[in-house]
């Protein structure tokens, strides 16, 4: 999923960042390396020969191709092809794309406030952000964006469409919206604003059960969650539901900080292992809410940092996990800035839960499997898991070779809006379990 004007990355691939002075370190499930890129070392004569051939091919294209073409697009495509052959999550980013990624980590952007996803070549509104221009204009979940400023989204592509929708606050952008069964196509003239993402929403359910929806793990998520839990505690909260469904991930530090609210001090939350790095990230500050029974809701779109939190609280028996098999993003990406302003997002390690298990390809298996009900009027899109992606890594434990995930555990659907009331079968199951725990 993507936020227009903001979000780079998706739940399907998962993402996680850490900001440090001068560098961004990406952990698609999360790891952190500070460093730059030095000179390339030729491993052997074969590599040297291949690089010479590459230079010859490039020179022939520049000199003999039927039309004269700019050099940069050719080189960018060559680099992208090389990186794309590695795995689904390594990526070469142009200076503009890298700049967009840096903006994404700030949690504030100029845009119209739409969370979007894709269905084939179609760009679909997953949800408007509360009190945003799109929300106030009446754009709804399930709407299809067919044009941006009169240009077809099919020709723009997702990345360019997102980039076109964002811009300086106070400026206009026109979105052409198709709403099935309501109107054929309609233009919405929106004025961009500074959009701030509120990653934590909450309410009190019956029998003093607190409910917290965590949309993603950003810089302020742990702090906002701490404040939210204290408010619920003050209102007499006796149990808690943490909803991580459709959560694509986020910052590693945020995942560790959130886990630290529920598990004792100095416990391993997640560890990562690679050729050049091995590190454990530990809880800190002491558990603030040790007495409250917790249920975590997950689904196919629960990825990366959201899987780290789920795995940590499951391993320490601190929460009951309810839902369906999660995405299965268990590799670590590091952002390496290059001298021309571009950057390389390179897979550098795998991560492991506190008990040492890898969820790569496999995902987090809920303690209780409950599938989402797709109510009338809701839209469901079939989405892949990590194991379905081209060039995905094998699970280092060999799980995918000798452990078959029961088909009943998996529901490859992104449902939006998330069902409410009696239609939300997963939340209903969580409430029943917590009511029993409260009465015991």
Description:
This protein is of the alpha+beta class. The protein folds into two domains: 108-196, Pdz3 Domain, CATH 2.30.42.10; 200-329 and 351-439, 2-enoyl-CoA Hydratase, Chain A, domain 1 (Alpha-Beta Complex). The protein has ten helices and 24 strands. Strands 1, 6, 7, 8, 9, 10 and 11 form a seven-stranded antiparallel sheet that branches. Helix 6 runs parallel beside helix 7 (252-260) and helix 7 (252-260) packs parallel to helix 8. It is globular, with a radius of gyration of 23 Å.
Give a nutshell description of this structure.
This protein has 440 residues and is an alpha+beta fold.
Q: State the helicity in percent bands.
A: 25-40%
Shape: globular
Q: Which regions are unreliable across 5 or more consecutive residues at pLDDT < 50?
A: 1-43
CATH class division of the largest domain? Alpha Beta
Do you know the CATH topology of the largest domain? 2-enoyl-CoA Hydratase, Chain A, domain 1
CATH architecture identity of the largest domain: Alpha-Beta Complex
Number of helices: 10
Q: Indicate the multimeric state.
A: single chain
Number of domains: 2
State the separation between the terminal residues, measured CA to CA: 40 Å
Strand content: 25-35%
Which structural category do the helix and sheet elements fall into? alpha+beta
* Strands, total number: 24
C-alpha-based Rg, rounded: 23 Å
What summary fits the major beta sheet? 7 strands, antiparallel
């Amino acid at each position: 999923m993507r936020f227009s004007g903001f979000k780079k990355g998706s739940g399907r691939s998962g993402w996680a960042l850490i900001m440090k002075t001068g560098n961004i370190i990406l952990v698609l499930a999360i790891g952190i390396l500070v460093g730059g890129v030095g000179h390339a070392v030729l491993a052997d004569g074969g590599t040297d020969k291949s690089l010479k051939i590459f230079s010859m091919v490039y020179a022939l294209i520049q000199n003999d191709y039927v039309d004269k073409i700019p050099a940069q697009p050719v080189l960018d495509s060559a680099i992208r092809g090389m990186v794309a052959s590695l795995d689904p999550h390594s990526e070469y980013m142009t200076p503009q794309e890298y700049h967009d990624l840096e903006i994404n980590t700030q949690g504030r952007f100029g845009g119209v406030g739409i969370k979007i996803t894709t269905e084939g070549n179609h760009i679909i509104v997953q949800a408007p952000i509360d009190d945003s221009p799109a929300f106030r204009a009446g754009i709804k979940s399930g709407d299809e964006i067919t044009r941006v400023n009169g240009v077809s989204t099919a020709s723009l592509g997702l990345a360019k469409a997102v980039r076109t929708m964002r811009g300086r606050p106070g400026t206009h952008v026109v979105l052409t919206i198709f709403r099935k069964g309501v109107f054929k196509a309609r233009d919405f003239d929106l004025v961009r604003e500074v959009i701030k993402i509120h990653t934590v929403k909450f309410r009190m359910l019956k029998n003093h059960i607190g409910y917290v929806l965590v949309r993603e793990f950003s810089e302020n998520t742990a702090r906002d969650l701490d404040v939210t839990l204290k408010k619920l505690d003050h209102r007499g909260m006796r149990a808690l539901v943490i909803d991580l469904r459709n959560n694509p991930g986020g910052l590693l530090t945020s995942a560790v900080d959130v886990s630290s609210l529920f598990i004792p001090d100095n416990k391993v939350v997640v560890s990562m292992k690679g050729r050049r790095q091995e590190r454990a990230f530990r809880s800190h500050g002491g558990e603030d809410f040790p007495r409250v029974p917790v249920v975590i809701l997950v689904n196919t779109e629960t990825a990366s940092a959201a899987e780290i939190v789920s795995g940590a609280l499951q391993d320490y028996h601190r929460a009951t996990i309810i839902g369906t098999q999660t995405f299965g993003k268990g590799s670590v990406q590091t952002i390496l800035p290059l001298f021309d302003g571009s950057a390389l997002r390179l897979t550098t390690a795998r991560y492991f839960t506190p008990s040492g298990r890898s969820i790569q390809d496999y995902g987090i298996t809920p303690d209780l499997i409950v599938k989402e009900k797709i109510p009338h009027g809701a839209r469901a899109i079939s989405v892949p898991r990590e194991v379905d992606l081209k060039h995905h890594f094998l699970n280092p434990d060999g799980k995918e070779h000798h452990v078959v995930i029961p088909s009943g555990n998996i529901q490859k659907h992104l449902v939006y809006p998330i069902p409410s009331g009696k239609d939300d079968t997963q939340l209903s199951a969580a409430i029943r379990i917590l009511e029993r725990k409260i009465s015991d």
